[in-house]
Amino acid sequence: MEKLKKYGSVKDEDQFYHQGAVELLVFNFLLILTILTIWLFKNHRFRFLHETGGAMLYGLVMGLILRYATKVSDVGSGTVYECEKLKSGPSTLLINITNQVYEYQYKREISHHNVNGHQGNAMLQKMTFDPSIFFNILLPPIIFHAGYSLKKRHFFRNLGSILTYAFLGTAISCIVIGLIMYGFVKAMLHTGQLKGWEFHFTDCLFFGSLMSATDPVTVLAIFHELHVDTDLYTLLFGESVLNDAVAIVLTYSISIYRPKENPNVFDAAAFFQSVGNFLGIFAGSFAMGSSYAVVTALISFMHLTKFTKLCEFPMLETGLFFLLSWSAFLSAEAAGLTGIVAVLFCGITQAHYTYNNLSPDSKMRTKQLFEFMNFLAENVIFCYMGLALFTFQNHIFDPLFILGAFVAVFVARACNIYPFSFLLNLGRKKKIPRNFQHMMMFSGLRGAIAFALAIQDTESQPKQMMFTTALLIVFFTVWVFGGGTTPMLTWLQIRLVLVGIDPDEDLKAEAANQSTSTLDKNTTKAESAWLFRIWYGFDHKYLKPILTHAGPPLTTTLPEWCNPIARLLTSPSAYGDQLKDDDTDYIINNDELTENYGSSAHIPVPAQDRTCSTQATNKEDINEGDLGLGGYKLQLEHTAGQPQMNSLA
Amino acid sequence: MEKLKKYGSVKDEDQFYHQGAVELLVFNFLLILTILTIWLFKNHRFRFLHETGGAMLYGLVMGLILRYATKVSDVGSGTVYECEKLKSGPSTLLINITNQVYEYQYKREISHHNVNGHQGNAMLQKMTFDPSIFFNILLPPIIFHAGYSLKKRHFFRNLGSILTYAFLGTAISCIVIGLIMYGFVKAMLHTGQLKGWEFHFTDCLFFGSLMSATDPVTVLAIFHELHVDTDLYTLLFGESVLNDAVAIVLTYSISIYRPKENPNVFDAAAFFQSVGNFLGIFAGSFAMGSSYAVVTALISFMHLTKFTKLCEFPMLETGLFFLLSWSAFLSAEAAGLTGIVAVLFCGITQAHYTYNNLSPDSKMRTKQLFEFMNFLAENVIFCYMGLALFTFQNHIFDPLFILGAFVAVFVARACNIYPFSFLLNLGRKKKIPRNFQHMMMFSGLRGAIAFALAIQDTESQPKQMMFTTALLIVFFTVWVFGGGTTPMLTWLQIRLVLVGIDPDEDLKAEAANQSTSTLDKNTTKAESAWLFRIWYGFDHKYLKPILTHAGPPLTTTLPEWCNPIARLLTSPSAYGDQLKDDDTDYIINNDELTENYGSSAHIPVPAQDRTCSTQATNKEDINEGDLGLGGYKLQLEHTAGQPQMNSLA
Q: For labelling, which of A386, A557, B53, B134 has a CA lying 20 to 30 Å from the CA of A223?
């Protein structure tokens, strides 16, 4: 028989039913407001507030209202019952109350000092998501979309630099933040501010790793709208995408670092185990994600054989694409790997191979679907961040820690960008100029990933303080840096392709040449020397022909004795399609993906991009249109602002 | 201090984390299998198994595997703790176990005899959804899509008949099933089969109402693929859509019917209260759904004024459309109405007004988005139905009750279709022929709604028996009737528009004339006399001009003295757009919505439809294309299988 200590708490049952609806309605309302505001801003070409910033602002206001305008209705819910005989919490608990059996489901473990947080405003409690929602529902579409919309040609050309920033840079950033914070924490412990807290160096490193995930979504949206230099765009985007993956795995590896003895003493075994964990999880997630994408590519590839034509059923094709990509996430989670990382590499691989095999209709559908999911999820997260400042009930504001964090974050960003840029410039033919480096330094915004990593664990007091601090850094960087992007671009004299009204090719090419670019566009072909060339050669000769109907026939690329296998694996259309191959790299084009919601009516594509991608798209349309799509054909038209019907007349 | 009775149950905590991933992975796997199978079937033009039937089959097999191939791992989880001091269950419960506080969340109330169901296979338990997921997550997109894709012209023309079948027919069906089942239950009680059960007439009526929700998704898919007569299609589709709404509200009204005294004696007051509830909830949900749609229409309408152009940002437009439609559902739920009914009428109204205001890109996006959500949700539900036969742990199979239910369902369907068709034929100019009536009788499939209504409450034994029986009826009707649709159409000699290869207009018109149709296509304009005409007149003269940029200017339809207001409300483009008005009714075209995933390469649209909708779409493209869409224009092309590039050359 157990004893139960009870402080009394009675909850009206009727409230359970419609509870979720009201919360979701609040979010819907905030998102609707955000959309209407952004619409207004876009009309007036205000660029200082991106939709994510707007969502955060509305969330903040709503949080303020919920906090101070709703009454405390659930007074006595901080009741703790004692149960001595159980050794751990069962997943479901059946409780007999006045002869009714109620079923309770395990939610989480909470620490004793947080029990008080459960007293108080019921509405605030209800507006608090389960942190796992961020990782399992909201982040995957955002990350997949990032991978799927990676501008591949530029990405692979800058692969070396991007990997350096993302891996080494993030590691450095993590360590620098960890060291600086450790200094501050030592000082705070010395002054007696954190009396009785356990705050080790690993906790500081944990904070360092979660604060190393940059998320320059605002900056990238403005870059895109203003057509800032593609290499700068790619460097920043590529870095932010891969750096998320690194930061997530790094945070996880640090959180499971358990030295055997004194936690303040370096334990080599535990350290190497953490490094091993990091490498294992990263590699495993990478393999899981890309293998699902390869399976999708193979299935969708089959549509060219005469037996089956999946591309005739875009709905089935889209469904399969969606389900297999999601399975990549779920399988990684189920296998104890990192789903987010898996889904990122799945997205990149899907874009590289599967996308080429999809019917034009499915290309459009998948792009729009993930774009839409990304849009919603991103705004929900930023909205929730605003809300969390007031609705989260265990904030710990510590001015010294916050000051330290701000200093640490900027110093760490500088230690990432400047030294590595210097080193990279030694090897790069096309240098990263000073103003680009400053812009990258400036674009070290923190966003959704840092927030999601911080909110995952808010049980102990150090973690709560970290969460509060992370939230404030996100606010500051998104509003101040995000809002300051346009002035910064002007100040740093970074080349913008002029937004002209005339869609004429020559004029724009001229504009591009007259621009203040410090880079010679014509030398780009020879960049990112060996890494890119090795990868490209292998991919072009073997992977593309096997997985897509692009590339040279395998019979020409494989050694003679492999001919029987090569003939089996080569798509019959590969022989005729050799011309197309050069273009297939460009067909996932970020311009296509976002320009139809990102900006105003006339968006000239940067001159060089335009030539390539337009040709690729049109060629594809002609070639694949012949497959017959049930009288329903989507056509991408790239002549800005000119309806096709008119141009025919 | 409370006493806790404890039987012991320890659950490994590590399992919590990756648990959800495995379950979802199983569903993903089943859906992927379903898609691959359907793809194969479509290739071979097998029409006897629709994707929903396939999903159900795979679910069944997976359920069988889970049931008999997984080991019993969670032996002692049927533990009931006693808690005397609490008066009702709090929403969250904090429990102190070995000095760790665990948080538990209220899930549901369960009755004592079901406690045993909690013992046993942990995997089976985990594969069991919370029933509210069906109503809050899976059904809304399905129902919204149904409303959004309603073929409006034919729907309004047959409005009287559809309303008769849906309202009166469903009521009759509910009563007939209730009466027959009551007879069977009486007999079973008499033979002592249901010893000690409480089984009132209201329970039988409850069963009757939930079994009255028809869901001929399989039949409609085949009708669509084979181009069966549009009026038959519309009658069936319209009936099934509205009848869901009626059945849901009816079930709810019956479930809250509480006679004061003996539950077997008729209580007039309680009865009229239930009728009042029914009417109130139905009208309230209708109002809620359509008012959100009207708000959306007004917002999207604003894009024609010079200040703001929402249509330039299809993403924002789609987002707004999605969020406002979802808000209709949530608001209705929060207000204690029926969200499903609200979302249905929201869909219908969105299609009627808002759709006309959307940019071509958003039209495409919203259609594809909801089509995709419908596809996934439908297959998940049918998959789950298959699973539930083996994973649900409280089945009660009673042969007599099942027999009774089968008899009752078919008799009730007959009592709905034949008498009402007879009565309707007295008033209809275009009679519903005998073979159509037989086909409608045959198409009384039960599906997602009946299942969702039955699984909502499986606490008492009668409800468990009803759930089991409902499940079997769904299986039987989907497989047998769904699979028998094509033979039945042939047997009943129902006109099919021949599927020709030549997309030429005249040939198809000829084919249509040569077909065995008993209806004269040319008289359709004069059908559904007064109800349709009154509504159409009002809608055309006042609502369309106010809410869309179609229809005649208000200045011509309103009386002279209203001119100032009329001028204010009329869209500037309305004056020039009078020609377009006749077509706007047709632009949500079910062919467009599904043909790109429903069938093979050459889908000739029925002759009459084709002329109208093609013109409408093209005209729209030209007119709205001028607004400029950021160099990215979607174009719907209706010339079956002919790529446009070729036709230009």
A: A386
Q: pTM for the complete prediction? A: 0.78
In this structure, the answer to whether residues A241 and A303 fall within a common structural domain is yes
In this predicted structure, the answer to whether residue B635 has a pLDDT above a threshold of 50 is no
Range of the domain at B569: 531-579
In chain B, what residues touch A339 (CB-CB under 8 Å)?
21
Q: Which residue is closest to A16 within chain B, CA to CA?
A: B91
Q: Please indicate whether, in this complex, the C-beta atoms of B597 and A136 are within 8 angstroms of each other.
A: no
A21 at B interface, C-beta within 8 A: yes
pLDDT in tens, B129-174: 777 788 888 889 999 998 888 866 778 778 888 889 999 999 999 9
Any domain includes A318: yes
Inter-chain residue contact A319 with B635, CB threshold 8 Å: no
Q: Give yes or no: residues B373 and B258 share one domain.
A: yes
**Residue A84: CA atoms inside 13 Å, Cβ hemisphere, count?**
7
List the single residue in A35, A84, A622 with the smallest CB-CB distance to B316: A35
Show residues of chain A in contact with B637, CB under 8 Å: 631-633, 635
CA closest to B91 among chain A residues = A11
For A255-285, the three-class secondary structure string (H helix, E strand, C coil) is: HCCCCCCCCCCCCHHHHHHHHHHHHHHHHHH
Chain A contact for B319 (CB, 8 A cutoff)? yes
Could you tell me if B173 and B295 lie in one domain?
A: yes
Output the pLDDT for position A211.
92
Q: With an 8 Å Cβ cutoff, are A372 and B315 in contact? A: yes
Q: Establish if B542 belongs to a structural domain.
A: yes
| One domain, residues B277 and B374 | yes
ipTM: 0.77
Interface A-B, measured as beta-carbon pairs within 8 A, has a size of 441
CA angle B405, B407, B409 (to 5 degrees): 65
End position of a domain, from candidates A492, A512, A541: A492
Domain count, chain A: 3
The sign of the CA dihedral B271, B277, B283, B289 is: negative
Of these ranges, A159-163, A171-175, A633-637, B629-633, the one predicted with the greatest mean pLDDT is A171-175
Do the strands A100-110 and B2-4 form a parallel or antiparallel pair, or are they unpaired?
unpaired
Q: Do both A536 and A480 map to the same domain?
A: no
Task: Please tell me the least confidently modeled range out of A255-259, A608-612, B244-248, B277-281.
Answer: A608-612
* 274-303 of B, contacting A, C-beta below 8 A: 299
The answer on B329 and B423 residing in a single domain is: yes
Give B 492-521 residues with CB within 8 A of chain A. 503
Residues B1-22, mean pLDDT to the nearest whole number: 43
Distances (CA, A) of A560 to A536, A545, A550, A557, A564: 22, 16, 21, 9, 9
Give yes or no for a contact between B208 and B450, defined as CB atoms under 8 angstroms apart: no
Q: Are residues A310 and A185 in the same domain?
A: yes
Residues A136 and A18 in one domain: no
Burial of B298 (0-12, 13-18, 19+ CB in 10 A): middle
Tens-place pLDDT, residues B380-394: 999 998 988 888 888
**Residues in chain A within 8 Å Cβ distance of B634:** 364, 634-635
* A458 domain residue, yes or no: yes
Q: Which residues of chain B have a CB within 8 Å of the CB of A499?
A: none
CATH of the domain at B160: 1.20.1530.20
